[in-house]
Amino acid sequence: MSVKRVSYTLDSTLETVNSAEETATRIATEAGFGDEDITRIAMAVREAAVNAVLHGNAYDPGKKVILAFERTAVDLVITIRDQGRGLDMSKIPDPLAPENLLKTSGRGIFIIRSFMDEVEIHPSQAGTEIKLTKHVHGSDVDGKEASQ
Amino acid sequence: MTMKTSTRQVNGVTVVDLSGRITLGEGSVVLRDTVRDLLTKGNKKILLNLGQVNYIDSSGIGELVSAFTTVRNQGGDLKLLNLTKKVHDLLQITKLYTVFDVRDDEAGAVKSFN
Hints:
Low-confidence stretches of chain B: none
CATH topology of chain B: Transcription Regulator spoIIAA
CATH class of chain A: Alpha Beta
Strand order of the largest sheet of chain A: 1-2-3-5-4
CATH superfamily of chain A: Histidine kinase-like ATPase, C-terminal domain
Order of helices and strands of chain A: EHHEEHEE
Strand content of chain B: 25-35%
Mean pLDDT of chain A: 90
CATH architecture of chain A: 2-Layer Sandwich
Shape of chain B: globular
Oligomer: heterodimer
Number of helices of chain A: 3
Number of strands of chain B: 5
Helix content of chain A: 25-40%
Radius of gyration of chain B: 13 Å
Order of helices and strands of chain B: EEHEHEHEH
Helix content of chain B: 40-55%
Strand order of the largest sheet of chain B: 1-2-3-4-5
Structural class of chain A: alpha+beta
CATH superfamily of chain B: STAS domain
Low-confidence stretches of chain A: 139-148
Largest sheet of chain A: 5 strands, antiparallel
CATH architecture of chain B: 2-Layer Sandwich
Shape of chain A: globular
Mean pLDDT of chain B: 94
Number of strands of chain A: 5
Largest sheet of chain B: 5 strands, mixed
């Protein structure tokens, strides 16, 4: 199967969050994922987009969110990049720690990690890029299609 | 789909029927304003019926936690009713299912406040 890639440059708005979720739903559906995986992929993308718009770009109209989807034979790979100051990973609390359970924020990254097969977060001074991977059903992690 | 709420009184308990999505933006704000309004009016026994809530994100979860702690801090109680599978699963993985008092029977839930 050929690699298909599409990317979008989006404003730092709430509409972008909803748009990213809707686009992820559509592309995951077209990629053949089941309903539960589609919901999880869309929610992970939504959470990543929230981080990019709110915490990364801080709603700055001069900064963009770059959202890209890449479909290979074995994976759906989604990258979300902001133009903020870079996520400080040391400040992300463990939302499952007893002292954090009743906090009203800090669950986004945890949800993303829970719902995707692989998550890479690359913060830099030019912004944060988060790469989300979901293995296509019927494929193993080594890239060989299980049905063949 | 935006979130809608309606409230009704059942034996001294305020049942809030919610429908739609509790997400960053309007849904979370509607929930926050609803709970705040109830507390202002002295309604401190609150049962959130989430049976028609088909989607919630981390901001929505945060809003549920905020509502829970706000009501508790004012001497009241807030419980959840009729979780959909998606909401149930999300509360499970975030370990909040054991924090909230979650019910699936309205009559029993109302009784549990007394």
